[in-house]
Every structure is written in C-alpha cells, then in structure tokens.
C-alpha cells in the first residue's frame, strides 16, 4: 500500500555543528538504505523549505512506521501521513 | 519540473444529480486526457476522503495552471500546490 | 489494518425535512450493513456534537475508501482518517 | 464512560539519552499497569508519527485525569480528549 | 459530571424572518426546560458575539448529548465540548 | 462582571524538579487566596489535559488582569479570555 | 470599560442589490447613532478588506452586547472581541 | 507606499454562467484600468489555484482601499494585505 | 497613517530575573519615548493576557517599522499589523 | 520562473549578541550577492514584523532552493513559497 509522507525538520537550536553533521550523515544512510530496498520510492525536497515529500510503498502500516521511526531525526520532525488508494479516474493500473 | 497538487472537492449543494453526473464525466475525460499526455503522472485518492493527491511533471508553472484550471470542477476545489526539487539524499537520478 | 475515522456531518441547509429523513434512514442502513460485516468495529457519537468517531478493520486502504464513500452522506461530511499500527507499549496482541 | 485520547509526544531537546530511556521505561510500566486494570482498553500508534490514539473506559472524568496525568511524559505531551457516547446507528449494545 | 459547552450559532441565510422567529422561540423553550431541570446550570452570552458558553451537570455523556441535541438549532451550531474534573487547587468541595 | 478564562500550562523544560515544585506551591497559594476573596468563583481541570477552565467575577477588566497576572506561572501559560454577559434565554437572574 | 471589536462582513450571496442597499443604509444609521452617543469611539476600515476595527467605551459587557447586536448585519459578521485594560507602560491617564 | 495583496476568489455557487462571465469581464476592465494608472504594479496568478498575488504602489491606505474595493468581485474574495517597507539588506534604492 | 498593532510577548525561558527586569525597564523607556512623541497614540493591555494592543499614527510604513523594531523585546514578540483607513460610516473627520 | 517567498525569522534565544551579529552580517552578504546576480529581484520588510517578502526570478525550483537554503539563517526561518504564473488580466507582458 502507498503512503504520502510530508516531513518538516526542526533541528534543536542547542546542537553543535558536529552533532548536526553526524545526524545528517546518519539520516542520509538510513534513508538511502530504505530507498535501495525499493520501499521508499520517491524522496523530494519542497523548493525553498526545510521540508520533504515522500512516497512509500509498504506491506503494512506497521512497516511504514518501522521505516519512518528508524530515521535518526524522527523525534525532531513534524510528520504528516496520508494513506492513498486507487482513484477511479486514474489510467495507470498500478499505484506506482 | 514537478509539482505535488492536493485537491479537496466541494460539490455545491444545490446541484442536481444530473448536473453532478455531467461534471464527474467531464472531469474524468479532462483528467485522463492529461494523464495520456504524460504530464499528469500520478492521480491518487486519499483513503476515506473526497480528496486527491497528484504529481505532475510540466514545462512551467504556466503549464501547471493551464492543466489544473482546465478541470471542470476547478472552481469548486480547495487546491494546495507544492513546487518540488531534488533532495540531496535521493538516490534516483530523475525526479520521476 | 485498522483506521480511526472522524466524521463531522454538515447537512445542506436547503434540504427539506423529508430529504433529511430519507438520507438519515439510508445512512443508518448502510452503516449497519458494514457493522454486520465485522469491518466497521466501533461507531461512537462525540458527546454534544454532530460528529462521529469510528474504528474500522479492513483489508486495504481501497476497502476503507469503498466503505466510507458508500455512505449517502459522504459528500456532506468533513472526514479525518488516521492509519493506526501496533504500539510498543500495548499489551494486547491483536489490534482489535 | 468512554474517552478517545490522542497524545503527541514532544521530548525536550535538552534531555540526555539516559534520561529519555528512563522516561520511556517508566512510561511503559505506567501505561501497562493501567492496561492490566482494564481501564485503558486500546493503545495504538499513529503510523509514521510520534503520536498515540487511545480508548479508555473509566468511572468518571476524574479517573480519566488520574490515569493520564500519572504518565511520566504527561507534561511533555499535547493531549486531545473527546468524550464519547452511544451512536443511534451503532448495532453493538455496549460501548466497548 | 460537569461539561463546558461553547456554541456558535450559524442561522442559514435562506431562512425567512418567520422561520427564524419560530426557531428562536422553540430554542428558548427547550433551553429553559433543561435549566429548570437543574442540569443546565449556567447559560451565558459571549459579549459582542453570537455565541454562548454553558455549564451543564449531567449523569453521563449520553445525557449531555440528549440535552444538547434536543435544541432545535443543534444542526446549525458549531459546538465545542470540554469534560471537566476537580482541580487540585480548587477550594470548593463540589464541582458546582 | 464575569469572565471565562482558559489556561494551558507550559512548564519550561529546563526547570529542575525543585523549581517546578516551588512554582506549583506558590501557584496554589496565590490561586486559593483569590478563591477565598470570592472573586475566583470556579477553578476546574480539563479532564486529561494540563489545562484549566475558570470563572471569575470581578469589578473591572483591570481587576481581572491584576488577578491573573499575579499567578507565578502567568508568563508560562497560554491564556484565552472571554467576557460574558446575560443570555436572553437564561432563567437565573444573577450571572453567578 | 474599553473593548476592541473586529468585524468581518459576510453578505449572503442570495441577497438582491436592493436588500443589500437597505441593510447598508440601516447599518450606517445604527452605527452612527452609537457614535453620536459617545460609546462607539473609533470605527476604522482595514485597508483593502471588508473588515472593520472599532473601539468602544461602555458601562458593562451587557452594554457592549446591546450595541453590537443592534447592528442589522450582526448575524452576518464574524466578530472578535478583546477586553482591554490599562497597560503599566501607558503614559496617558485615561483609557481613551 | 507599497502593499502586497493576496486574493482568493470564491464565486457564489448560485451564479449563472452569464452572471459569472459578466463579472469576469468587468473585473478585467477594472483591474486593467488600475494597472494603466501605474498604481497596480504587478498582478500574478498563483500556479494551480484560483488566487492572485498583487503588488500595489499607492499614496495612502485609503487609496489602496479605494482600488481594491472597486473590484466587482471584492465582496466575493478573501483578501490578505501586508504593508511593506524598505529592508536593510535591499540593494535597490526604490521600493519598486 | 494609522496602524493597529497587536503584540504577544514571549520571554525566553532561560533568562534570569535580572535580565528580564533589565529588558522590562528598557522596554518601558523606549515605549514611553514614542508615546511622548505623539506617534504611539494608544497602548492597552489585553485583560488577563501577556498581550498588548496599540494604535500608532505615523508618516509611513517605514516609520512604523522603525518604532516597533526599536523595542528591546521586538525579537521576542509575535506581532500582527493592520493598516487602517477611513470607514464610510465614521462620523469623526480625523482618524484619531 | 517567478516565486513569492515569505520568511519569518526566529533567532534562537540562546544565541549571544556576537553570534547574532555574525549571522546578520553573513545573511546580508549572502542575500546581496543573490540580488546582484539579478535573481533575487525584490526584498521587502513587512512593516512592524520580523518578516520578509521576496520575489525571485530563477531558472528552476532547484535554483530557488539553492538560493534560499544558502542563507545562513535558513534553518531558523519559517518559509512559505508560492509558484507564480501569468494572470490573464495582467497588462504587463513579462512577469517582472
């Protein structure tokens, strides 16, 4: 099943530049691991904002939560999730 | 360039069932025409809501507006548009 | 999978009392049919408001949408959907 | 009587990992104690978010407050409470 | 148990002055009946707005809903309900 | 004149447990002093939330401000104030 | 006592031009009567919007409500009221 | 002085296509008259939405209001106005 | 020209009592200097809240910004500004 | 293509005056570099607020993001972006 996930990142102001760099590196590794698995299908930046839009295709809501909550910055993001389904006007057979 | 477009449909309460059916038919034709052109890449339903999430790949913001405003229900929708760009952590080379 | 669905009903002001009564009767039949199927597990009223809170256990987001959009009042409700999953602190094995 | 309780957790950014681990452990013990008592009937995670949805069946609003405010993370959560009652279309005799 | 109920009235624009007068009369009778019963303890106007603040002391959330939904203008109000309980700093023994 | 005051408490995360306990004690003393004066008529807890609902009967808006701003936690609360007046449907002669 | 009142006007779309003109004329007469009484001290337009900002000096919240609710367009406005009091940094002795 | 004005158009659902066409024509004439005067400097469409963003350079807030309120669709728009001034980092001497 | 300015003060939680007292003293001096100049016409407290409502009469938006941004607490306030103009129903010739 | 960008600055409360001054200086240099390039066309201050309104003309959404995210204060701003296109009523041939 397919989810649209929007994430706004709020880096704590007290973090040192080293700590930020460490988190950013681990966030990249974690996110790219899930992209390689094929479950994290799209990862886009919202132009001009510190926000992301993602599309994930997973087995279950539990798997979606496992992926998103594995991100090192998970506790520092405002996250909005939409469960998607087939639109009657969509020509494409598959969801992705 | 790629846009994420979210549309909430608000059918006027005074419309007859015939008028609604007519609009729904024309909306489908219009939307499928743009899907066939390859510009309207994804059209999903938000599960349980009278809302859509779409991803369009267009030449310009003017083209995006031409497509969305050609929908018969355009004046009766609340529409939210996000301009997307490449995310530094994205593995995929292309946006779509 | 389990969804929490919150619905606020907005009856169009132009409807006659007969039309309202007809919709309310059909809404009840429709909702009770889904309750009998076992998919619509809980249906509660929010005390003092014209709003409902429901818990549904379905096969897929598409099935959730089929159920909710089959309600006669679907076009006249503001609907909020949350996809739920297992909480690590939950003692109960099953979701429901 | 039955309440729907939604909690968003906001861990203070200044907390050490030890402090967080300590709170998380005590939160689990506290929540599971109330689940064993039968008063905290459902505890779900919102998929992809650091939020919970719970259903509690209690003797009074005071008892609800005693339970929720006993959680160690109570001061660090945004909490929304809805008092529920029987829906005229509900087939189920009992609320739970 | 005690509830705080805030109601904003939205009279449909299509109603004739007769219809409005009829509803207002019946609303008054209905509300005063519940006040006489002792369950609707306070009914205040918010100064300068078409809104009310009420305090009700009832047996159950179901009784609260029975009272509020018996108001003729119930379908035309935006209603907000808060379930109240004893505050540890309150000197007064009783809630009302 | 009568005011409805809603307060959400936001304890600063950096405060030690001693500092919190000190503030809570002084808050109680301050609030109970005003309750004894008869001006702070009701003080309720919103069930399940770190929020209060109060009803005060005072001589003037200046007196209301003197009372509320004397609370030690005043700078750490989000406060909403509604000025109340007599409702035409109210049976009770007095406001309180 | 002094109140700040903000009003957004929402003329019903079904009104004829004659009906609108009639309401606008009566609104002007009513508002100017209160201005002459000295109680409605300031009446400003928000530049570029169909909204007003007013300052009233009245005897009581009941008097404020009597004035505002006497406006013919009262049921068709979204109204926000703030009760004002003396600021410790204000040099001016009087409120107005 | 310079104002940023954002307008969302809400055409009443009861209007006939002739009435809409008449308003749209007059709206265009009115807006182009002000553009020719040099006071309405920029008029942009928000891509994909029935909304405009405008920049006006006027003599006074009263003149801004005269211009915006002369639009035939003025009563049917949600309008947001921001008063702009020189930014200390701006290189450009003039505002426009 | 006349502006309505609403300010909510958010004192940083980490400030010592000395630092707060110093800022409050300087804020008073600054605000009273502008009041003496005649440009800051009204300064009111919102009863029961840590918020102010002010009316300023200035030469230009730039002057308004110079005044407001000279306040020591400027970076720690949420500020809302409305540009006002003459209302057609206002009897008073002058804005102030 | 043209974007309207609104930025609210939130300086972290823990920053020393030196650190703030350093950021402000670098922010100015960065923003003026982009203004000299011709891509950052307008930079205005919202009168009385710590907010900016900008108009940028760029090659792509990616270029917009490169510019905005190069600002030293980028992680400490709430940013809102609107993609603009030609309005059918605009007389001006070019967007800028």
Domains of chain A (count): 1
Question: What is the N-to-C order of secondary-structure elements of chain A (H for helix, E for strand)?
Answer: EHEEHE
- Quantity of strands of chain A, as a count: 4
- Structural class, from secondary structure content of chain A? alpha+beta
Helical residue percent band of chain A: 25-40%
Model regions low in confidence, pLDDT < 50 over at least 5 residues of chain A: none
Q: Biggest sheet of chain A: strands, sense, closure?
A: 4 strands, antiparallel
* Tally of individual helices of chain A: 2
State the strand order across the main sheet of chain A.
2-3-1-4
Which chains share the greatest interface? A-B, 30 and 30 residues
Rg calculated over all Cα atoms of chain A: 15 Å
CATH domain class of chain A: Alpha Beta
CATH architecture of chain A: 2-Layer Sandwich
Describe this structure in words.
Ten copies of one chain form a homodecamer. Chain A is built from two helices and four strands. In chain A, 30% of the residues lie in helices and 33% in strands. By secondary structure, the first copy, chain A, is of the alpha+beta class. The mean pLDDT of chain A is 96. In chain A, a hairpin with a 4-residue loop joins β2 and β3 (51-57). The longest helix of chain A is centred in the first third of the chain and has 20 residues, at 17-36. Chain A has a single domain (2-84), classed as Dimeric alpha+beta barrel (Alpha-Beta Plaits, 2-Layer Sandwich). Chain A has a four-stranded antiparallel beta sheet with strand order 2-3-1-4. The interface between C and D is medium-sized, with 29 and 30 residues. β4 (77-86) of chain A pairs antiparallel with β2 (40-46) of chain B. Chains A, B, C, D, E, F, G, H, I, J: Belongs to the muconolactone Delta-isomerase family. Chains A, B, C, D, E, F, G, H, I, J: Its EC number is 5.3.3.4. Chains A, B, C, D, E, F, G, H, I, J: Homodecamer. Chains A, B, C, D, E, F, G, H, I, J: Keywords: Aromatic hydrocarbons catabolism, Isomerase. Chains A, B, C, D, E, F, G, H, I, J: InterPro entries: Dimeric_a/b-barrel, MLI_dom, Muconolactone_d_Isoase.
């Amino acid at each position: 099943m397919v989810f649209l996930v929007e994430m706004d990142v709020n880096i704590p102001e007290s973090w040192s530049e080293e700590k930020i760099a460490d988190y950013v590196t681990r966030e990249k590794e974690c996110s790219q691991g899930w992209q390689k698995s094929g479950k994290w299908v799209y990862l886009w930046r919202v132009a001009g904002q510190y926000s992301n839009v993602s599309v994930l295709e997973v087995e279950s809501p539990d798997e979606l939560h496992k992926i998103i909550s594995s991100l090192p910055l998970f506790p520092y993001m405002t996250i909005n999730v939409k469960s998607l389904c087939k639109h009657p006007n969509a020509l494409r057979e598959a969801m992705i």
